Amino acid sequence: MSGSKMSAEIHEQPEVLERILDEGWDEVLSASRVLRQGDLRSVMIAARGTSDNAALYAKYPFEVLLGVPTALASPSAFTFYESTMNLEGVLVVGISQSGESQDVLETIRRSGELGANTLTVTNDESSAMAKVGQHHFFLRAGKEESVAATKTYTAELMMLYLLACALKGEERLGHDVRRLPELSREVLEAEWEGTERYRYAEYMVVTSRGYNLATAEEAALKLMETTYVVAQAFSAADLRHGPIAMIGHDFPVLVIASPGRAQPGMRSLVDNLRDRGAELVVVSDESTMLDKASAKFPVPGSLPEELAPILCAIPIELLAENLARLKGLNPDSPRGLSKVTETW
Amino acid sequence: MSGSKMSAEIHEQPEVLERILDEGWDEVLSASRVLRQGDLRSVMIAARGTSDNAALYAKYPFEVLLGVPTALASPSAFTFYESTMNLEGVLVVGISQSGESQDVLETIRRSGELGANTLTVTNDESSAMAKVGQHHFFLRAGKEESVAATKTYTAELMMLYLLACALKGEERLGHDVRRLPELSREVLEAEWEGTERYRYAEYMVVTSRGYNLATAEEAALKLMETTYVVAQAFSAADLRHGPIAMIGHDFPVLVIASPGRAQPGMRSLVDNLRDRGAELVVVSDESTMLDKASAKFPVPGSLPEELAPILCAIPIELLAENLARLKGLNPDSPRGLSKVTETW
Known about the structure:
Chain A has helices spanning 5-11, 13-37, 50-66, 75-79, 102-113, 128-132, 151-168, 175-178, 180-189, 213-227, 236-240, 263-275, 287-290, 308-326, and strands at residues 42-46, 70-72, 90-96, 117-122, 135-138, 203-208, 230-235, 252-257, 279-284, 295-298. Chain A is an alpha/beta fold. A 5-stranded parallel β-sheet of chain A has the order 2-1-3-4-5, sandwiched between helices. In chain A, strands 7-6-8-9-10 form a 5-stranded parallel β-sheet, with helices on both faces. At the A-B interface, helix 3, strand 2, helix 4, helix 10 and strand 7 of A face helix 3, strand 2, helix 4, helix 10 and strand 7 of B.
């Protein structure tokens, strides 16, 4: 383990997940009991940066497990264009680790006026966002000092997953979600290798599909923030639809391919990318895919697809932190960034 | 004008826009009269690639002008995960120039079974997608032979804008939308300069905000498909939230900043990027911003913000086509791409 705050916070994730299971579930249950009494026609989620990737993840459990159509909010529709859209029957969720993201705050405040039920998720109980909605979930991640969010990201994923379960009517924590603290410890202790050869990489494509699309987006964001690599995420379906044209010999591609419905397609994409001469970093449980990679991050294969993004986030955080140090950069202090985002 | 099909199709846009106004509006009006009789609680739009950027555009007129919350669909929720979400009161719109995009087709078919009203937008009246929904809008763009979509993109934007107007209850074409064929001719005839210095650019960031966020995404996609430049789009708000860390001296950034609520923020971002030493390509009506760029694409400043993306798409198509030729590539035949996307 290096001495960066980012590395320390990456390693705190098992205990944060455990704390949410122990202390956060009651909060989720009681908000959900209230919300289930009203009309729940759709969900809209407002967030920026890493929290927006948590929102992208949440779209899948909300649509697939809970069965409610879910949109990612365009904050500018509220902040610039003064939309008076009808939000009756809509649950609007705002996510921000600091709880001070101004346009997300304004989106939640205005959504309430437009008839929505509102809920916020933050890592600061005394923040403005903790008070603006009807309900608030506290992430309990402890102070996050590194500018690059890590432990608050996986905490957000778990909170949002639990919300989908509770809104569906589940009253008890499921068996699989309770395994996450232990499995995340295993991922942190797993051997990984091969990152040195990316020391001089200037750009990278990241790809996955379905539940793990959010992991791909988050990997790209972490790499951009901490290593200044131009990293870009694509749904594997969208990648094949056009951008694959730019991938030729030596082009570095990070593939996230954990078990589930998306995996067979990821397997064929890995072959396609290898045929084009791409250089692969693979996060997977499958040795056949790992064997085709020059940097390999194994993850456990025994979790349901909807929970895998919580584990798969860890290797991509380790990769970003490690690559930042390989490049001689301080992962804790990206140039030109501050922890709380001011959006004009 | 070069001899590429892409260039020829870029130059057909004024007549395509005119044809939609002359022949397409009645189709939009009559579908909207039917749809207005039912419950319209929210909209969900399914698309891939360029059409997905048209969907991103449409989210703004639907939410701001029409006042209906709008989501971009995750096709895998239907195709992989067999979501049984409740879609009563939801209008699900599928967009595909070919009308043969398999996962969009399946999303529309399944949405109908789940209670949605369905509408498709294609450039082929005999395609599978033209028949799968309750309503169909025909783009009338003429056959598009270049793999990189151009005229079908602006046709999609106009059709979706007209749909928002008609669903709102407008019975006549507005004054501003009727000016688009003529204004698009002006954009095609305008002098632009400075693209040569990007001959060896390997990556590029594209940024805008609000209505023109879709233009930024489409610019990035066109550049990736035709020039193999690793081009990545960000909302200006998201760019400031983290990825700006990677932008230093010489880094090429394409900025789209047409008039409206988003422009003051874009102006301050341009200054911020210049302070970091970035090299700017600017699409704008404002000479102060154009003067800070090394490649300049002027656009008219007299249109309402919601229609600007139809004009601003043209310079970015010209840029992609021109840069492909500067790099010695054939913009009509990107490696590894075909016109119809097969998604596994």
